[in-house]
Amino acid sequence: MTGSATGGGWEDLRATFTQAGLPLPPMPMALAAQLERRDDWLWSTRDVDRGLLYDPRLIIDEATSPVSDYVAIAHAGHGVNSYFLTFQVVLGPLALFAQTAWGGVYMDATVQTEQLRVQFEEIAEVIDLAAAWPADARPGRRLLVLVSEYKSIDLCTWLELDGRGQPGLGRLRRSSRRSTALRRARQELDRRGPDESVEPRDGVEVTVALDWDDAGSVQLVDGALVFPADLPSQPGIYRFRFHGSDGVRVYVGETSDLRRRANHYLIGNPAGRTNKWVHDLMREHLASGGQIDMAIALDGIVTVGGLLRPLEVGRSMSRLLAEGAALHCVPPEQVLNLHGVGER
């Protein structure tokens, strides 16, 4: 839990923050005595580079690694206005990164100080809950909490300690909502044990972020369709962009086997209504001088009710959700899918 701390590092931090007119950051009692001053405006319980505390990449990696508990506080930035106070902690089931603007030339010190006070109070509640979290609850998992207005990141999600489902920073679902991740973290650590389920709600916000990879182009060679080589025989979402004189049209589908689905389009078996329709459409488009580019998505991120989790492309339900989301990103006039839905 947080509370009065002792030790030279904490005393130095307290004096520095007090002199600057800032509220004191929360300090896990179990780590207080280990806190050391590493450099100007840099305190931590382990040796860590200041630059690594400017970006959440470190905490994302450690959210899925069996690292020892630690805390680090730093003031870091660049230029004249991009400066932030960063609070980073790994404590039991919790891996938390919170970044708040402070110290820039053009910043309002009063406003930023108040934002820090509110954020520190919320973090203190989360730390107290993490410190009291049962050791056998959600074994092998850690709650990743990221809060950074600068990077437009506000998320809270459980991740596996063995690295499964770990999202890279570029794949994190950004959010314009503020101060929601810390609230969700309190709910996760306070209201739910390892065997409880999410409380039912009348409505749940769902977002989908797909990792699209360029697979190549579809060609027409000697009157026959040729699909991109090396399509994997695994589940995924696929997207065809038809480029022509009248603009761009888009077809999106999902399948349990991407290579097999391409073969179905290649043959255009009349017994498969959609297969034949796509086959004929591609042949006609390419014969008229158009181009067709193909992209595939083998994984992605789904955010349900504010909680981020990997997209399970091996499940038909998840692929259908992703397919529908991808279609909703296409202007209606560009959608080629029959009746606006993908192939079943």
Tell me what you see in this structure.
The protein has 344 residues and is an alpha+beta fold. The protein is built from 8 helices and 13 strands. The protein has a 7-stranded mixed beta sheet. Strands 8, 9, 10, 11, 12 and 13 form a 6-stranded antiparallel beta sheet that branches. The N and C termini lie far apart (53 Å). Mean pLDDT is 83; it is low at 173-178, 192-201 and 340-344.
Characteristic terms for this protein:
2 domains; elongated; about 350 residues; single chain; about 25% helix; about 30% strand; GIY-YIG endonuclease; 8 helices
Condensed summary:
The protein is of the alpha+beta class and 344 residues long. The protein has two domains: 8-191, no CATH class; 206-340, GIY-YIG endonuclease (3-Layer(aba) Sandwich).
Structural class: alpha+beta
Within the largest sheet, what's the order of strands? 1-2-3-4-5-6-7
Strand content: 25-35%
Poorly predicted ranges: 173-178, 192-201, 340-344
Largest sheet: 7 strands, mixed
Could you tell me the number of beta strands? 13
- SSE topology string: HHEEHEEEHEEHEEEEHHEEH
C-alpha-based Rg, rounded: 25 Å
The rough form would be described as: elongated
Mean of residue pLDDT?
Answer: 83
Continuous helix count? 8
Distance between the termini: 53 Å
Question: Which helices and strands occur, and which strands form pairs?
Answer:
Layout: H1 8-19, H2 29-32, E1 36-39, E2 42-44, H3 57-62, E3 70-78, E4 82-91, E5 94-101, H4 109-131, E6 141-148, E7 153-160, H5 181-191, E8 206-221, E9 224-226, E10 236-244, E11 247-255, H6 258-267, H7 273-287, E12 291-304, E13 307-310, H8 316-328
Parallel strand pairs: 5-6
Antiparallel strand pairs: 1-2, 2-3, 3-4, 4-5, 6-7, 8-9, 8-12, 10-11, 10-12, 12-13
